Amino acid sequence: ARDAFYACMEKEVDKKPTEIASVGLLYPSDCKAARAEFVSQCRPTW
After folding, report:
1. 14-33 per-position pLDDT tens digit
2. Where does the chain cross the membrane (predicted)?
3. C-alpha to C-alpha distance for 18 and 21, rounded to whole angstroms
C-alpha cells in the first residue's frame, strides 16, 4: 500500500508540484484512496 501511494505521489508531482512540495501534509486528491489504505496498514507518521 505504501508503494502504491508513493508511486501515485511521484506521478502527480509532474502535474501539481507546488501542491505537494509546499506542504508535506498536502497530497493530490487522486492519491487519497492509496494513502487511506497506506495509513490503515501502517503506523501513520504524518
Report:
1. 555 444 444 455 555 666 77
2. none
3. 5
